[in-house]
Amino acid sequence: MTQRRDRLKKLVKVQEQLKALHETRHAGFVAQAVAAGTEAQALTEAFGGDSPMPQLFPELYHQRISAALARQQLSMGLAGVEAAKVATATARTNMVERAYRDVRRQDERHSADRERLEIIERRSGEDK
pTM for the complete prediction? Predict the structure, then answer.
């Protein structure tokens, strides 16, 4: 194996790990957004329900609903940023994988050429 091939192989692994990291972060932000949306919906339903608590503390409910909606928007924005990073990491991973496959094929061709040359040299040495 050549040094370039080794480096590309390691780089493919690193790019795949980076891609997985961004995918995990994206999923986390989406989950946070869903949780915040669920919380806002539950608070809104409680505010309109029969419970006396929302009538006693309406300001508190409005603040919590606003905070949950703000967290939802923030998480969705961060999820969008991570989605863009996933796309970039995917493109880079594909590019590095293509380069690795090209180098691997080139090494295999060189190896096969060397073997053929050795066979030819042995045969020409035996003929003399």
Answer: 0.76
